[in-house]
Amino acid sequence: MTHRESGPRIGLLGGTFNPIHLGHLRAAQEVYEALGLAKILFMPSRTPPHKDATERDRIVSAEGRLAWVEQAIAGVDHFEIDRSEIEREGPSYLVDTLIAYHDRNPGQPPPVFIVGQDAFAEMGDWRAPSEIFALTDLAVMTRPPGQLEKLEQRIPEAVIGSFEFDPDGKRARHREAGTLIELVSITALDISSSRIRKICRDAGSIRFLVPESIRSAIEESGEYGPRPSSPGTGGSSIR
After folding, report:
1. pTM
2. Domain ends where: 150, 167, 185?
3. Cα–Cα dist 167/172, whole Å
4. Gyration radius of the chain's alpha carbons
5. What are 133-192's pLDDT values in tens digits?
6. Spatial CB neighbours of 192, under 8 Å, sequence gap ≥ 6
7. SS3 of 13, please?
């Protein structure tokens, strides 16, 4: 199976980004290089439909999360912001975002939606999965341990019949729409937004987990918890 000749592709990296961290940025960079993308658009969700906030573990306002993403990618020419989900009222469903993307970019090749292997396996439960898989290429990020070897192992049952798979199982093409799914191996970084929020609740430092350009803003905002006891040094113990 060879890739269709369609010109440079644009990557879309959506998410709550609560908050954005170095794992997001490194993954985006590796997918950008692996697939030769023209650029990657970061799309913070306004109202993530699959995540619930609690009083203890809250979701920062859309504008607050957007500001941190903007600061985190500032100065990287091939990283840009897409505000479509932030500006759209209601739950941030991917199918609505993709339809709007195509309306804004008529005649252009489909975007490449970047997704982790676990979320990829759950896409059958997202709104209108058949339409999603026909509207966008997908870059499925996989990393050790438990690295996904073949797309057929995790592709949602609702759409598996719509795809023809490469013999090695690492790529697949939609039989009607021509959209592609590709496995992209990335570096394993043990960083997560939930871990960062917990460290903040424990008054620890998140230095070296998020870009330095936004670390102080996150810690001093009080959004996730009290400020670290020693902001200048990140505390006296290793966390």
Report:
1. 0.91
2. 185
3. 9
4. 18
5. 999 999 999 998 888 999 999 999 999 999 999 999 999 999 999 999 999 999 999 999
6. 21, 23
7. strand
